[in-house]
Amino acid sequence: MWCSRPSLASGELDPAIHTCKFEEIGEGVEGYKIGDIVSVCPLYAKDGTTPGYTRDGGYGTMTTAPVEQLVKVPAGLSPAKAAAATDAGATSYHAVCTVGGVKPGMRVGIIGVGGLGQFAVRIAVVKGCEVYVATRKPSAQERALSLGAKEVKASITEFADKNLDVIIDFAGAGKTTADAINTVGQYGKVVVVGMAKDTAEINTYPIIFKELKIEGSQGSTTADLRDCLELLASGELDPAIHTCKFEEIGEGIERLRRGEIDGRLVCIYD
User: From residue 32, how far is each of 65, 128, 197 by CA, in Å?
Assistant: First the structure.
């Protein structure tokens, strides 16, 4: 089993998500065989339960999952990258493509280039968008440019003249959301993903006079996960991945709290 460890937000940890190998198949399940490697979509199960989110088991060496939440991992894709896809990858894909609705030629703003943002920048670039990134961390600024971003600044407000079609806020720090609303272009959309703060003081003037849309984005669907896995398998996505062993999970979490991990932390269960 391979477990992807989400980044920290507001001092809290999200549950672990898995890519795992079939050990047993439930009655009536078709299309799978023992030994298949699958990723588990963490949300929207028919019965409302998935391991690590709505029930315990996110760190277990074995777990069960409803068949409608499974996506086969493409041949040749490493389980570690597939594990990251269930978490940051598919969540970013959902925000950029499903909720954000990006299309080729659109101008897209991305706020934050952490574990999710690195996926989002590259996904938007691969989809044919002109991508403008806001992040204050020098290493993140360099990464955004290496992923294909057109320009990188410390604040999204520095792109007020770009008439951005969509801005996706992976920070959710209150001010970042307010800045996105003030900056996005006429008839634009702001997608909020990050949860660094649960409140934001916003200016309603641009919402009204620019006729803006503000939408939240949570997790992903199996369709999002499948598309993300295909992009990873094609090599179009190549996120920064760090690995640890099961017995190193505790220290890995502390490293995340200290901000020492740049990318995604994946636990490999031997």
Answer: 13, 35, 42
